[in-house]
Amino acid sequence: MDRTLPLNPLLPRAGADKPDAVTPAAEDAAHVARATRAAVEFESFFISQMLKDMRATTREMADEDSVFKDKVNQDMQDMADGILSKQMAGQRAFGVADAILRQLVPAKITPGNT
Description:
It comes from Massilia litorea. It contains three helices and no strands. It is elongated. By secondary structure, the chain is an all-alpha fold. The chain has helices at about 25-60, 70-90, 95-105. The two termini are about 35 Å apart. It has one domain (about 25-110).
């Protein structure tokens, strides 16, 4: 581990004044992009798990001849839930990604505050 790097990734790194060094603004933008991507992926995972638990409960409560007990329907519903979770996370429907970004990225450069 390079001990010259600061713990805060938004602070300029040692040697940033060299011509071949990446500028702090570029590092900030890259950090925001990575943090945003990770936050949206986590929100997608969160929504997916929630839908999975909701489907499992519905299947347990369903009658034996219900469409929810059919294995083919279960697989298709799981696939549809995966797609739905990605779409909802992309729209930041639940606000989980936004809450994560408020903690990871300073308010002055958070996407959506511009």
